[in-house]
Amino acid sequence: MSNVLRQPAELTYQMELDALKAEDTGPKPTNWSLSPQAVVTYLLGGQTPGGTEISSKYIGNRRLIETAVATLATDRALLLLGVPGTAKSWVSEHLAAAICGNSTQVIQCTAGTDENQIRYGWNYAQLLAKGPSKEALVPTPLYRAMESGTLCRLEELTRMGSDVQDTLITVLSEKMLPIPELNSAIYAEQGFNVIATANNRDKGVNELSSALKRRFNVVVLPLPDDMNEEISIVVRRVEEMGSSLALPVPANAKAEIEKVITIFRELRGGETLDGKVTLKTPTGNLSTAEAIAVMVGGLSQANWFNNGKLGPEDISSNLVGAIVKDPVQDKVVLEEYLETVLKKRRDFAPYYKSMNDVL
Ligand SMILES: Nc1ncnc2c1ncn2[C@@H]1O[C@H](COP(=O)(O)OP(=O)(O)O)[C@@H](O)[C@H]1O
Ligand SMILES: [Mg+2]
User: Which is deepest, 34, 81, 96, 166, by most CB within 10 Å?
Assistant: First the structure.
């Protein structure tokens, strides 16, 4: 086993991808490694025709994933939209791994991203020595994806300035990238496309211009609306992360996950699950991804400091940390929830106590 902390999806799930590829008889868009059907199977899980188990990466609506995959087979780019923690980056990585076998052509968009990080940069030593030439040009992930007919991932597209976003318009509509310094251009190979993710909750987002928006099909990834679905996402990911971090997952983990998800859903939804008590909601968004992080933190604490016995004491400090993002406002919200709801539930008594201890 390699000592790399985290490998890209195409290496972690190489066996599944190889099995799907070997048995894939469906028609493929040019330059795709798998047929669209097989890509969907890779994401949602199932079996190959020959009976190899494919684990499910995304738990949710099949239609959403089909739309996402179908979009990538057209000339329109894909924009995955949703609140933080709804698996946008995760789905983007797995789509790229399944479609072109390379999920690492990523540009993380920030307020400081400039055109050179999107189009191409220059190796200044070369530029000074030889003047502008192809050798002096430093390709970006987008450039390489165009050249090789593969996918480029743009993370948090709306974080970068609108003027920089708009450099994508020519790339997406004409599938070419002009290089005026060399009086040339590169033309995208078949198979090239873009998967962008964006957050519809963040403060300080730069809205996409309507010209750019028109080049994207938007797929909105929702928070799971069914509690059991959310529990199963967390159970599965906690098991996977536990094994990759060599943290044993004790038998009671599922019961604790149910408790954590109950607390998350009640605070997120602004009422108790039975609908009887209205609650104030905290400022953070309490996503599924945060529930996973709370549980993995709890497992680590239990493993290293509590002989592997996982209990509310191990989970509570992370739980409070996830809920109280604003130390003044959210603290009041949580105190009220503890006093009006959890205090009265016998099965939550250990949580009531240990959360009060850390609050
Ligand atoms: N519906 C889901 N199915 C599978 N995993 C999910 C789901 N929702 C959230 N997750 C998990 O949440 C984690 C974080 O997701 P991430 O892609 O970083 O969120 P985002 O980019 O939307 O902020 C991932 O590890 C993913 O496994
Ligand atoms: Mg993300």
Answer: 96
